[in-house]
Structure formats: structure tokens, C-alpha cells
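Internal QA ticket QA-208
Title: Verify multi-chain structure generation after dependency bump
Assignee: T.L.

Test input:
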Amino acid sequence: MTDQVLTEIQGNIIIIRLNRADKKNALTGDMYTGICDALDQLENDANLRAGVITGTQECFTAGNDLVDFLNSAGIGGESPVGRFLRTIPNLSKPLVAAVNGPAVGVGTTMLMHCDLVYAAPGAKFQMPFASLGLCPEAGSSLLFPQLIGYRKAAELLMLCKMFTPEEAVTMGIVNEVIAAEEYQAHAIAQAEALAKLPPRSIRVTKQLLRKGNEEQLKAIMKLEETYFTEMLAGAEAKEAFSAFLEKRKPDFSQFS
Ligand code: COA
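Actual output:
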């Protein structure tokens, strides 16, 4: 059990807090395991009716820990990331996200599997997979073009453009921008509101909202897993990751 993921039960909801501020809450294998244990608890405990996922007050998450990633076997199978990518889309109960500061990589893509998302004005969203020599994950290659159209999705997933909370609201990725002092309390209040509604009705509504995409999502996530795992061990990713760790600009001119 890592103290870099804190959980707290408040009545009928569970609050999951990413807690590794010195590394911008970058996610290690142990942290994915901590999140999944908490999501399993939400799924299996009949007293729990909704969850909240958030970071520290100032930061959601800088995405996968790049050092951990370099030494990992990828995002598939029994890996902690693989477990996370199977658990979050299959959660039957509602999950609310509260975001401030960086929401990078999986910090943005996981939001597509949350039901409600609130962001503080300081939130910064980015999916830099292509610039890291990788490819989209968590079903983002299907879910983003569906939600925002191909053109915008190409801007976010190929050019890796960073976007603001206001743009995220316009694109339908975030429900509302809430003041920094209140965004976490607001997300918790929304989860509490969900927890007061008829629980089966909420579960069936969530299931139906997502059912139409289920098979397509499963298929694209399988393909993403295959490419991502192969590319993580590839030369382009090695150059991108080394550049990040050496605090220099990557040079992709040698690749074809
Ligand atoms: N993996 C590992 N370490 C990370 C990290 C990550 N994804 N993101 C940040 N860190 C570390 C930094 O290396 C730094 O460590 P140090 O203090 O030992 O040097 C510390 O967290 C603080 O990060 P820093 O870059 O100084 O903060 P910032 O506010 O200037 O920038 C980010 C924040 C998120 C924009 C920047 O850290 C970043 O781009 N991180 C990488 C994001 C990424 O590519 N994620 C993977 C997606 S698949």
C-alpha cells in the first residue's frame, strides 16, 4: 500500500487523492495499484455509491512516471497500467474527477472514463504521446475524435497541443470551471448528490450511456496496447525519454 495514493470514505463516497507533489503526481506502478484497489473497493462495497479522483490542491497528475515507464513492460496484461486501463472503463458506479494544474497523458485520457469532470482555472491538459515516440492510449484514439471531431483530435493527439480548462469545457471534456478554492469541494458535492440518487438507476444509466461504444472501445484499446507496448521499447521513445531526463530538446531527425 503506497501513501502516494490516499483514500478517504465520506458517507457513501470514496475520495481518491494522488499524493506525490514533488513529482507532480506522476504515476508509478504502485500508484496505479493504489488507484485500482480503491476503484475495486468502490465497485464491490455496497455502501459506496460514487467516487472522486483528484490530485493535490495544485496538481492533478503529470501522467505516467517516465522513469518507471522506461523500466516497465508496457501497458498491457497484468501490468499495473494494464489493470488500471481495464478497471476504469468497466466501473459500474459513477466517478467524478477534480483537476487542477497539469493533467498530462493519462491525466487527460482517464477523464474520458469519468462521468463528471470539474477543473480549476489553473488546469493544463495535454496528451503528448506522439511527441514521446508513443501513441494514444486508454481508448483516446476513439473517444477524442468521437467527442471533438477528427480535426481537433489531430491537433491534440498529433501536435500534442496543450489546452485550457475553458477549451476543455467547449470541447465537452470538462463540465465546468470552478474556482481553485472550491473545485475539489464541488466535485465531492456532485459525488454526494449522485450518491443520494437511486443507485441501480444510476448504474443502469451509466451502463446505457456507454454501451453503444463498448465493443469498439475494447477493440481499439487492444490495438493501442499492442502499439504502445512495442513503441515504448522503440528508439523514438528512448530518445524522447532521455531528452526529458537530460532536460534537453529531443532530436527525431535520424528516424524514418
Ligand atoms: N515522470 C517522472 N517525473 C516527472 C514527470 C513524469 N511524468 N513529470 C514531472 N516529473 C518530475 C520532474 O522530473 C521534476 O523532478 P526533479 O524535481 O527531480 O527534477 C519534478 O517532477 C517537477 O517537475 P517540473 O518539470 O520541474 O515541473 P513543471 O511545473 O516545470 O512542469 C510538467 C510540469 C507536468 C509540465 C512537466 O513536468 C512535464 O512535462 N512532465 C512530463 C509529462 C509527461 O510527458 N508525462 C507522460 C505522459 S505519457
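Spot checks passed. The longest strand covers residues 5-10.
Status: verified.
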